[in-house]
Every structure is written in structure tokens, then in C-alpha cells.
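Q: Two folds, back to back.
A: First:
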Amino acid sequence: MKHSGEPWTMSGMKDLNAPHEAPVRDFLQNLTTAPREHARFMNMLSMLEHMGSRKIMLSQMDKVLTEDILKHLAEEARHAYFFKRQAERVAGHALDGYNEENTMSRVPALMYFGRMDAGIAKIVGPDNAYPWVSLIIELRACWLYAIYQEVLEGSNLHISLKSLLAEEDMHLAEMFEMCGADEQRIQTLCRLETGLFEKLWTNLCATFSLPQAA
């Protein structure tokens, strides 16, 4: 998957997360063979996308809502719908809301997003948080969804993230343009997010254990 090059190079995201690529890929490959847990994982992604759209709405309520911001909000909401729909298709039944039963690592995922949002706002200031939070989230989304797409292509599930990935990559380029080329700040925020992502992923792995080698 081709990404907008400049934010990837400047952030150091790929190098920072290189040790996580193989474990994340293994986790996702095993997850796609377990329909119930796979559905719960996708419902968690739906919840995170919903939180992203809600964050945009709340943070921009008292500001001038441009066409670009409304488009970003609508697309994040559509991504939440996409993952909810695919989760229900895999589960074979409705997954109403986001509760402990139907959402993998629900509380750790909420904590991941909340702590990242608060941590970034503390560094850049609450009035400047929207583009910076979005930029770092888009870096993570593009990183994770690109691996997930490759895993899905190798499975017998007819699920594609290609159009979603294209939109996330476009959002990444837009947020990078809004934030400006501040290499030190981008790398600081990426390290903050990566530390929080590691904690979330540790919980996911504890929730869904990989098969042990014989």
C-alpha cells in the first residue's frame, strides 16, 4: 500500500513500529480464523472510528466548519459503519452498541484513545489538538490497516479495506498540511502514541491468545 511519503518519513513511524509488524500480522492471521473474536475485534475498530468522528464533531462545534472538516467527520463515521457492518456479517448476528460482550478490549481501547487525546492536547494545546490528534491517528490507522488488508487478501473472507485505506491516506496528507513540517513535534507525538498502542495491543493479545507451537 502506497502512503503519503512525507509524514511517514518525518514521523519515523515505520522504523519505530518495525518490531511490531510481525507480531501484529501473526495476531491478525490467527484472528481471521476465529469468527467470534474477529467480529469483536472489528467492532472495537468501529468503536475507535466512531470516537474519532465524535472527537472531530465536539472539538469543532464552536469553530467554522469547513467542507473539508465535515467531509472528514462523515468519512470517519462511515468507517465506523463499515467495521460494524463487517463485524455483524462475520458474527452472523447484530452487535448493537459497544459493550464488553461484543467489543474486544473495550476499556483498554477507550483508555488508548482518551490518553492519546489528552497527551497530545497537553503538548500542543487544546485549541490546536484536532489536526495533531488526527495526524497521529491517521498514521496508526494507515500502518495497521495496511497490514490488516494484506492478511485479509490471504484469507477466505471477502473483506477489503482498500477504499478505506485510500481515504485514511488522504486524511493523513490533509492533516500533515494543516500541522506543518514540525519534525521534532511529530516524532514526539508518534512516540507517545506508540507507547499507548503497545499497551492496547498487549491487552488484545491477552484477550485472544495465539495458538501455542507444539
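A: Second:
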Amino acid sequence: MTLRPLARLACLLPLLGCARGSLRSTGEPSGETGAAPAPLPGHYVVVGGVVVGQGRADVEVSAGEVRALHAPGAADPALPVIDAAGRWIAPGIIDSHVHLAYLPEGEALAAGGVAGAVDLAAPVSAFDVAEPLLIARAGPMVTAVGGYPTRSWGAGGYGLEVRGAGEATAAVAALADQGAALIKVPLGSSPALTTAELDAVVAAAHARGLPVVAHALSEEAVRAAAAADVDLLAHTPTGSLSAEAARLWAGRGLISTLSAFGGGENLAALRAAGAEVLYGTDFGNTRARGVSAAELQALVDAGLDGAAILHAATAAPAARFGFTNLGAISPGARAHLLVLDADPLLDPLTLSRPVEVLRP
């Protein structure tokens, strides 16, 4: 990445349209090999690139936000420039299933192109942890006494045990008051929430405007989630799934996590039945520090094309989880940008190998 006045570059832009070298390969010294990129200025413009889905445009950034998209060469010539000639520019990715308390590497995720994440189980202390990416937090799962995950990997506060509908309602209120953006419940394991407890969780969450996400891997659990009006599945189910059960999920959401658990055939069936797919890796269980090539490839194998994958990783979760300034490159959006060596609509795996990540 090299910064320089726009006036010095304008006459060269027509010649650079097919350039494929590093962003640092612009005729100025880049410093020691392996050195970190120079800090971004507060106000700059990314020139020469193709904004994915919108065409060739220069992206003006100020104070960490996209200020404007300009016709090529039309930005203020006094602004510092980042040369993205021959590249594609995509919005930062949203990972809809992470566990940052379990694997606290938010900086690595952000540096790898993840602009936002949905943390789907953490102790209540995680509400106070600052991260370099935007986080929608569930806090601990609301679960039965002795229920998943309190007797396994989540024994350290990843589950909030309740007994009875009253305690279930109070648990949701307590989590919402601490900043929860959604509520997660486990289904299909024993001991489990009763029907009355699950209904109380969903009613209390929806009354607060919060979606409910279910850990539900079997057909029985998927059916129970649908009957309780749960909004999203935290994973693609791995058990045998009937067409009837898949149809119950029409209009609801499905977080992929294929690289963690598999289930590509079920994802394809749920998507065909009308479920909206969201990109998610179960980071903490998986370890890709950035955008996961394995998850992207699994989505390709499940039948999603580049446009569907990009939607699942940007606009869809932004709308589902209230990331109002993520999911698109437009004025007012957070300027967490991926500079790519290929068009992700044709080669979605390019999202996992950004040439540069520009972020606030």
C-alpha cells in the first residue's frame, strides 16, 4: 500500500488498469520486506479499482467511513491515494458464528478481512471486552439446569441455566440489559429446555426485538426450533433432514459452519426450501484467522455461486443482526475494505486471500 498525491497518479491511471502487482509496487520504496503497511491517513481515496457489484469507482474514505464513491479520477486531487488499479474492492466480511472468549483473536480476524462477527456464546464478562471489529453478542446460551454446554466445553460461564418459564424470561431480560443483540438456545441434547421454557425465551427475546438462534443439529431439534418460532439455526444440521423439516425453515436463517460440522447436503436442501444462508465458521472451534477458505469452498460445494456467497457474508448478516454500517460499500459505511486480486462474484475464494485489508 502506497500513499501519494492524486495529481502525480492521474496521468498514469489509463496505463495501470491491468496492473496485478502488489499495492506497494507503485514506484516508491515499500520499506523492509515483511514490514507492516504504513498507517492509513484520516482522509484518503482508493483509486483504480472495481467496486464489486457496482463497477469502476474511486472510494473516498474519511474518519474511518466511506464518504463517497466517485467516477474514476473525479475525487479531490489533493487527497492521499491508495492505488488499487487492476483490483476489486469488497466490503468487509461478517462471520455470523464466532467464540472470541474461547479464542480471543479478534485482531487477527479483523486484519484478515472480517469487519463484523456474531459471538454465539461467551461468559457475561465478554460484554465489556472491546474488539477491533464490530460484534453482536449473545452472551451465554440460555439452557436447562445441567444442559449443554455447561457440562462440557462451556463449563466456564458459556451457559446460563434456568428452571421454569419465569427464570427463562428473567434470563433474557438480564442478557438484554447487559447488551445482548440476540439470544442463543441449545436444542436436541439432554437435559433440555422444556417447551414452556423455550417458548418463554423466544417470547421474551422477540418482545425486546432480539432474534433467537438455536444450536439444533438433528431433525427433531430443527422441528422444535421452528415450532417455537426460533429465527436462525446456529449450524447447518448434520443429522438426516426430511424435506418436510426443511420446508419449516422457509423465511428463516441458517448459519453455515460447514467447515466445522459438515452438512452441505442439508444446507442445499434448506436453501432450496427458502432458508437464508449466512456465512459462519464457528471460530474458536475452527481456527482460520480471517476469512475462511475452507468455509467458502464448502459453500461452493453446496451449490452457492459467488454472488450468493458474498451476500451470505455481507448484506444478509448486516440486515439480520443490525450491522447498519456494514455489508456494503456506500456513503456512511464503515471503511473496512478488502482489496482483492479477482472478482469474488466469479472466484469467491479470493475473499480469503485479500491483497490488502483497509480498515479504520
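Q: And?
A: Residues 1-22, 24-35 have pLDDT under 50 and may be disordered.
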